[in-house]
Amino acid sequence: MPAASAPLLDAAGKPAGDASLDQAIFGADVKPHLLHETVRAELNAQRAGTRGAKSRGLVSGGRAKPWRQKGTGRARAGTTRAPQFTGGGVAFPPGQRNFEVKVNRKARRAALRGALSSHASAGTLGVLDAGAFAEPSTRDAAALVEAWGKERPLVVVAHEDEEALVKSFRNLERVLVTVPAELEVATLVWARSLLVSQAALEDVQGRAR
Hints:
Blueprint: E1 5-9, E2 15-20, H1 23-26, H2 32-45, H3 105-122, E3 125-128, H4 138-148, E4 154-157, H5 163-169, E5 175-178, H6 185-190, E6 193-197, H7 198-208
């Protein structure tokens, strides 16, 4: 099996060589069921689950009996906070909910390897030369993406200390800049192309091992 590699892009977006990749990570099998399970868990983790309503015990007021027990012709009632009254509580109200779904660590890493391998096999993965951006330039970043010729949305993975690179790409339309520690499978599945800096490549591979 040939060693996995990706084009090493210079500041102009042209291939300046090949960057070697870990075959065990970027040449792994893509398992759709693991991708689905992991993406679902990551999206569920973003849900707040803070919706809620008040039951009759939580609604204020209604201390006095609204009318006497007998003789009015109406149904007996003990409080106006009951669900049938306007302003009353809600019967069986929804409360805070935790949407988190547990995914085993091995399964999550296998899904990350599959998502990375999918980009590598499709030719939508590029490695950015470390010296490509000495200073921030959104214009140069846009020109690089245009010269590379890959579809957006584009995900750019770089270290936080690569300030010039981060500032260059973060204002581009349909481009998401993230760090290796926050790279998720859902982000890789959403992206049509992936660009990783040389400095961040080792950390990305380390997360998938």
